[in-house]
């Protein structure tokens, strides 16, 4: 997710790099190197360079996209998919989903939007599994520190926006609030009434730590400029003249270079490849911070010799730290869509969302016996890199959570919400929030430019499929309320393909054949005790290293009943404080 203009000095360094005749140029003088200028990376870079004596280099594979309308237009969620600013990864054939492959998108230059933190107890669970210093109360100040909430206008309040002032910060760099083009008129009331008839109460502010019910979601958006807010707009462009911040664009980080590769390995820099194919090393006197996202941070560790010895050996990489959990615990959510046709043309954005718990969508809760069976199955499906007893413990924590946190999200959108011209089309996308299935991401080559092997292992645990099917049925029951029936008719999948009286098995089959990735991968360098399958400790430091941290979605040990960026910004804010505290 990056998109940056080059500072004069970094442009200069860049030019030196490109014109270098030698195969290896060494650059000294940085205190920190951050790999990845995405959501987390730019946040950390910004906070560290508040200290004028601290020099930071950010290495980003993508380019700046400052004025690409696909990025700046708040409604354009999807047009970037498949373009040069999407990495366009693809999963392996999914054994438990009919063998099909799934497109795995990841920003090589795109920004955030939906801004929902999740449930208080989900962050508290991070502390409960052994991460000292991590709880909702300890993270809340960082959620607030990142944001500058725009109080809704009278027209927005009329259109369904609502908020609770004490849940928000108003002096952070990241603009949040409601979109400029929020749909006016009666649609909000019609949709709220329909969800209300299914027992979903209105939520005043979904960012207060509880999300169950129906609400209009808040976004990362500069409302008055009507521009999507992202990490570059908030944390980089306004600060790009800082002389102690350098950004290398179109530059791939290959691997960490070690000055001491014995126990408690010490990183001295990062090997990079420029867009011209020139390989060099950049040095950092203090730390290397990996923020390349859930699909790449673990593979950079593997290329650097940190990971499962048997995987490293396959690719001839010598093992610096024996850490078999690197790249494991990959959790993504499955997403399905129902599309409707109305007789009314809608010209506004509808960021409407319902969060339901298992009672709401009529699903049973897992038993303890289920958990041990699932742990065995998930461990086996991932070569036992994280063993069944660790997984069973984690599943127990997760199963306790879904006894009271929502496990379903169903969003409601007009075509305009996705950037289409005003139209009669409206749709709901929905997903299971906390899947038990876990997969992995690993290197597939010793070439750092090669794509990783991504295997989310969707639906390894049948309960996930049944849950997604139950959520489909629940979302359809919303469309079957009288208010929604009067408003719209289903055009996809349509009642001929999925009848109104479809069985649970028919719903499951439809889910399995039509789902896509929800683009919320996390957990691949999880913050957990090492014995449980963790990769980083509670200061986000990689086990077995002195000065390498991971700061991004990879460290999140559980899924959220929210969207990831809100929490990633908060993690990055806290990480910056942890790093600064070590400077003295
Ligand atoms: C289409 C789509 C829609 C989404 N919508 C939302 C939403 O509405 N709300 C929400 O909260 N979340 C959303 N997400 C998820 C959200 O974007 C991610 O969870 C979040 O950006 C992850 O942040 P990160 O810091 O972990 O990684 P990223 O922001 O992905 O940053 C990683 C960066 O590292 C760079 N990089 C990777 N490998 C290398 C390398 N080897 N060398 C140098 N640079 C490298 C990448 O180019 C990227 O810029 C969406 C994701 C997608 C794909
Ligand atoms: C915007 O997205 C469209 C559709 O994917 C693509 O054709 C176009 O090239 C993109 N524009 C830019 C500036 O990237
Ligand atoms: C917050 O945003 C408002 C405009 O929405 C702006 O006037 C104000 O200066 C911003 N505050 C900070 C601290 O950036
Ligand atoms: C990055 O690469 C693209 C595509 O090759 C190029 O158009 C752009 O100018 C490059 N940007 C920088 C800063 O080198
Ligand atoms: C959508 O609705 C319009 C107007 O009611 C109708 O003309 C059109 O045929 C419908 N389209 C589909 C695909 O059902
Ligand atoms: C949307 O339609 C309404 C009602 O027709 C109109 O008042 C409003 O100006 C339109 N808004 C936009 C952004 O086109
Ligand atoms: C909603 O109304 C406000 C105030 O009249 C207007 O500025 C805004 O453009 C309208 N939004 C839409 C989507 O019509
Ligand atoms: C769902 O929420 C309702 C209302 O708070 C509550 O009564 C019920 O126990 C919840 N069920 C679960 C499984 O969380
Ligand atoms: C992994 O590498 C093999 C052999 O080079 C190749 O055939 C395969 O397509 C690669 N897989 C991925 C996911 O890139
Ligand atoms: C659904 O209804 C159709 C006719 O309306 C009937 O043929 C079919 O058997 C029913 N299916 C189930 C699962 O009840
Ligand atoms: C599972 O792994 C953990 C950490 O590696 C270890 O402490 C535990 O003994 C293992 N349990 C089994 C049953 O192998």
How does the SSE layout of this entry go?
Layout (H helix, E strand, L loop, with lengths): L7 H12 L6 E10 L3 H10 L7 E4 L9 H4 L16 E2 L12 E2 L15 H9 L7 H11 E3 L4 H5 L15 E4 L9 H11 L15 E4 L2 E4 L4 E2 L2 H6 L8 E4 L3 E9 L5 E8 L5 E12 L6 H7 L2 E2 L1 H6 L6 E2 L11 E13 L5 E5 L11 H14 L6 H14 L6 E7 L8 E10 L7 E3 L10 E3 L6 H18 L2 H6 E5 L11 H11 L1 E2 L30 E3 L13 H18 L3
Parallel strand pairs: 1-2, 1-13, 2-10, 5-6, 13-24, 14-15
Antiparallel strand pairs: 3-4, 6-8, 7-17, 8-9, 11-12, 12-13, 16-19, 16-22, 16-23, 17-18, 18-19, 20-21
The structure holds flavin-adenine dinucleotide (FAD) and 2-acetamido-2-deoxy-beta-D-glucopyranose (NAG) (10 copies).
Keywords: FAD, Flavoprotein, Oxidoreductase, Signal
Cofactor: FAD
Protein name: Glucose oxidase
Give an overview of the whole structure.
With 584 residues, the chain is α/β, with parallel strands linked by helices. It is 28% helix and 21% strand. The protein contains 16 helices and 24 strands. The protein has helices spanning 8-19, 39-48, 69-72, 120-128, 136-146, 154-158, 187-197, 231-236, 297-303, 309-314, 368-381, 388-401, 462-479, 482-487, 504-514, 564-581, and strands spanning 26-35, 56-59, 89-90, 103-104, 147-149, 174-177, 213-216, 219-222, 227-228, 245-248, 252-260, 266-273, 279-290, 306-307, 321-322, 334-346, 352-356, 408-414, 423-432, 440-442, 453-455, 488-492, 516-517, 548-550. Strands 1, 2, 10, 11, 12, 13 and 24 form a seven-stranded mixed sheet that branches. Helix 2 packs parallel to helix 16. The chain is globular. Bound molecules: flavin-adenine dinucleotide and 2-acetamido-2-deoxy-beta-D-glucopyranose (10 copies). One 2-acetamido-2-deoxy-beta-D-glucopyranose binds next to loops.
